Amino acid sequence: MTQFLHGLVIDLRNKVQLLIEQLNRTTIHRDLASNYALNIKGNLERLQGVLMAMEADRDLLIPSLLVNNFKKYRLLSREVQLLEAFPLPVILRYAESDHYFFKLCRRICAQIGYPLIPPVVSAISTDYYWAYPKYHLIVVPVGEEFLLLNLADFYHELAHFLYAKYTLYLIGGFTTELDKFMGREKQRTGDEHQGKPALELFEEVKFQWKENWIVEFVSDMIATYLVGPAYGWANLRLSANSLARFDIFGPAMDEFSVVEHPSDEARMRGIYAMLKQLQLDLEIKGIDEKWQQFISLSGSNRPADYVYFYPDDLLATLAQYVFKGCQNIGLISFGEQRTSTEINLAVILNTAWNKFLLEPVHYPDWERAQLQEIRAKLETI
Amino acid sequence: MSDISILSGRYDTISKFSSKLNEAILLLKKAALKASEPAMMVREGSETDKAWEFLGIFLGELIETLDEGFPTKATIPYSLTAAFQKLCQNQPDFDQKLKNLHHRLTHYRDLIPDDFDLLDELLSVVDADASAVFRKLWRKR
């Protein structure tokens, strides 16, 4: 088996070499040439170096080290697979729509006081919007450059990079408060809840918060801080588009291991908690009126013990931390952006939602004209 | 919005931890095998010191985590807590074995083959979690 592993290492090293050669042969778009592509190539060269050293290491053939050498190989192999699947196609298939988002992203970052290098954007997603912070990448759906109503979700993806870099600034002592809160609830409720035993239930909920939900709630709250009510409306639209799943309150406890996001319903309350910090109570009322109608329409039911999953108090506490964190990082809130005299994306997105809600028939024409104006403005950058 | 945003961060954290743990075990295994394998390439000095130190911290935190029922420090990714607890529940003397290993690691810096087996068992838990997250991420691409 050691000889087989040796062969696998050689094969992987060869593959990395071929990927580097492919990058060298390709004419890289100017947006990516000076920085992004060089970084990715640097990643491949580093992997090539590690694999060459592994290949030359005679210890690779020692049977008692096989378990660990195999695990090392597997981690390296996965790293190559991820590079192949995520940043490399972006570089090799970079198109005009990606260039549009590249400029738009820089514009947005300048307007919100984004303290990090703006990520690269690719319009090739088949799974809505997503971010890959390690590869400095945001991916948006095909055709998204012709639409405005989803664009608030772009701010959510930008927030993932902020969370990765400034976790403690953004959540402060929240995890300690979460532990205390769940401990208190465990004692208070005893066995009165309907589902799992208290210990198991609250440990599971705490685990989900720490592992998956905090990052999503924080990203939602940062997006709301930056783009205001438009983010709440975009959440309603996104939930409405997945209405067929009837899962506004999902995941249920027995689905926790497979579903990473908190429920749409809880996310909306998280958004409200940040809108409250921004003192936009009237806007909360406007969104909630439609949201409650939508919940009734969906026919969704709260799963057992739902009341313990996302308590309002916890969401309000988190929103307070995130609000302070955003200010400490120097992000420019929606309220501050509203006073800007130049064309501001967050303001446009809120205007877009107002137009859409008031005059849905005329909205597509308005949207087209608005996007032309944005495009023209971006050309001057 | 897509789960890729969460899964990519989780895989990044767990794979870094898995790599660090594996490298530390590999380094100490090599050092232990040096006597019987003269041709062995062993990096002496600060790297081996760091491996002893890292494993000492990891085991100390793991023992504390298993005692308390939740992670007390930040070295071990949170998602691994449940998996380590399960491993501990399935073996009645597991807790004591961990404490013995921790003692030998931090006081004598001298490990026996059984210690390495235990370290590999812990590594397998980490590896299984990394594999599970990777598979989810891979399916989402």
Quick gist of this model?
By secondary structure, chain A is mostly helical. Chain A has helices spanning 2-25, 30-33, 36-56, 66-85, 87-92, 96-112, 152-171, 174-189, 198-227, 229-241, 264-277, 281-298, 312-329, 334-338, 345-358, 363-379; strands at residues 120-125, 130-132, 137-141.
What report would you give on this structure?
The complex is a heterodimer of chains A (381) and B (141). Helices cover 67% and strands 4% of the residues of chain A. Chain A is mainly alpha-helical and 381 residues long. Chain A has a three-stranded mixed beta sheet with strand order 1-3-2. In chain A, a hairpin with a 4-residue loop joins strand 2 (130-132) and strand 3 (137-141). Chain B has 141 residues and is mainly alpha-helical. Chain B has a single domain, classed as Four Helix Bundle (Hemerythrin (Met), subunit A), CATH 1.20.120. In chain B, helix 1 runs antiparallel to helix 5 and helix 3 (80-90) packs across helix 5. The longest helix of chain B has 30 residues, at 4-33. The two termini of chain B are 14 Å apart. The interface between A and B is large, with 48 and 41 residues.
**DSSP strand count of chain B:** 0
How much beta of chain B, percentage-wise? under 5%
Biggest sheet layout of chain A? 3 strands, mixed
**What is the makeup of the main sheet of chain B?**
none
Estimate the mean pLDDT confidence of chain A: 91
Q: Which range best describes the helical content of chain A: under 10%, 10-25%, 25-40%, 40-55%, 55-70% or over 70%?
A: 55-70%
Q: Count the helices of chain A. How many?
A: 16
The helix/strand series of chain B, from N terminus to C terminus, equals HHHHH
How confident is the prediction overall: mean pLDDT of chain B?
Answer: 85
- Secondary-structure-based class of chain A equals mainly alpha
Shape of chain B: globular
Instruction: Calculate Rg of chain A over CA atoms.
Output: 24 Å
User: Could you tell me the radius of gyration of chain B in angstroms?
Assistant: 16 Å
The number of domains of chain B:
1
Structural class of chain B: mainly alpha
Major protein interface: A-B, 48 and 41 residues
